[in-house]
């Protein structure tokens, strides 16, 4: 499917993010650093830093956290279409870590402003979706409540009516809903999409199988083919240290990754997706899409924060430089 339209529109929740220093533990009274984080806005920021028009649609509380989120995302060059909800707060995410590494992420998003997103929020911005080259959604949003569960398919339907390419990252959050609840909903969204991103366990979830790990590209390719047969479209299977596989039609493309020392893996999957979509917007081949996705995902893994280490074009060139210091 040839891409038409302009840039990428994303739809989903962004939360205030509290991050402690490497020590002490939260229970010992750690001072916290305040930031923001959300899968869909991470993708939008990554694309904006690479020079692509991007839009983020959501809802935030009428509070200081909501103001921070809107300000930060706009400052990154992303068009923000987020209503302010005076009756519900902005969601909150807290990272726990030891020795400079993230060890756990806790979410406080029940009853948040974004959990009250509904079809009306989508219809309000239908023109933005219809005019985009790509609509990107995740499996997080439908888990937030009945309204978001209606809103995501509505956004996808607008995209499909207007030849907007639909990208879907499964992004299953077991803390939000069970596999039994999530599986059919996420599989349906994958069938409605042109491109599906998943990890091995997420692929098994969509297939209704018991989760299993993948130890080789060959095993990954078999699983990718099973998923593609079930949901259609292009399937990208993320395999961690093994890299990734893009299955387009009958052709499987392997994208190995370079070994790294991961500091904070939270946000790396979103960075990978942003890189893949950036190359896709430039009419890149699946191999080129995987290469850029792996480079950007790896860069984000090596620094703290959900999105702060997402590279600009100039920084991406510097990653390929032969010297470690620019003088």
UniProtKB/TrEMBL annotation:
Pfam families noted in UniProt: PfkB
GO molecular-function terms, A-Z: kinase activity
Transport in keyword set: no
PROSITE patterns: PFKB_KINASES_2 (PS00584)
Keywords: Kinase, Transferase
InterPro entries: Carb_kinase_PfkB-like, Carboh/pur_kinase_PfkB_CS, PfkB_dom, Ribokinase-like
Entry annotated with the keyword Repeat: no
Superkingdom of the source species: Bacteria
Signal peptide start-end: none
Domain Carbohydrate kinase PfkB: 8-312
Family as reported in the entry's similarity comment: Belongs to the carbohydrate kinase PfkB family.
The protein's name: Sugar kinase
């Amino acid at each position: 499917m040839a891409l038409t339209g302009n840039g990428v529109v994303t739809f989903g929740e962004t939360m205030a993010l509290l991050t402690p220093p490497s020590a002490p533990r939260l229970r010992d009274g750690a001072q916290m650093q305040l930031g923001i984080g959300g899968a869909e806005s991470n993708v939008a920021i990554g694309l904006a830093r690479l020079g692509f028009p991007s839009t983020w649609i959501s809802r935030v509380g009428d509070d200081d956290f909501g103001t921070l989120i809107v300000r930060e995302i706009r400052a990154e060059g992303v068009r923000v279409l987020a209503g302010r909800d005076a009756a519900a707060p902005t969601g909150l995410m807290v990272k726990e870590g030891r020795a400079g590494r993230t060890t756990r992420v806790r979410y406080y998003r029940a009853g948040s402003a974004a959990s009250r997103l509904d079809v009306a929020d989508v219809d309000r911005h239908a023109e933005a979706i219809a005019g985009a080259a790509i609509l990107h959604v995740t499996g997080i949003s439908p888990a937030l409540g009945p309204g978001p569960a209606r809103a995501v398919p509505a956004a996808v339907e607008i995209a499909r009516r207007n030849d907007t390419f639909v990208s879907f990252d499964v992004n299953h959050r077991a803390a939000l809903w069970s596999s039994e609840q999530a599986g059919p909903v996420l599989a349906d969204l994958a069938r409605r999409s042109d491109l599906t991103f998943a990890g091995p366990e997420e692929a098994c979830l969509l297939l209704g199988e018991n989760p299993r790990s993948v130890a080789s590209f060959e095993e990954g390719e078999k699983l990718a083919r099973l998923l593609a047969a079930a949901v259609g479209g292009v399937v990208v299977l993320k395999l961690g240290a093994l890299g990734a596989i893009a299955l387009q039609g009958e052709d499987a493309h392997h994208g190995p990754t370079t070994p790294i020392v991961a500091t904070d893996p939270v946000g790396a999957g979103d960075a990978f997706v942003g890189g893949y979509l950036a190359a896709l917007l430039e009419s890149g081949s699946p191999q080129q899409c995987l290469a850029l996705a792996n480079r950007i995902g790896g860069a984000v893994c090596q620094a703290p924060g959900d999105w702060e280490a997402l590279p600009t074009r100039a920084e991406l060139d510097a990653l390929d430089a032969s010297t470690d210091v620019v003088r």
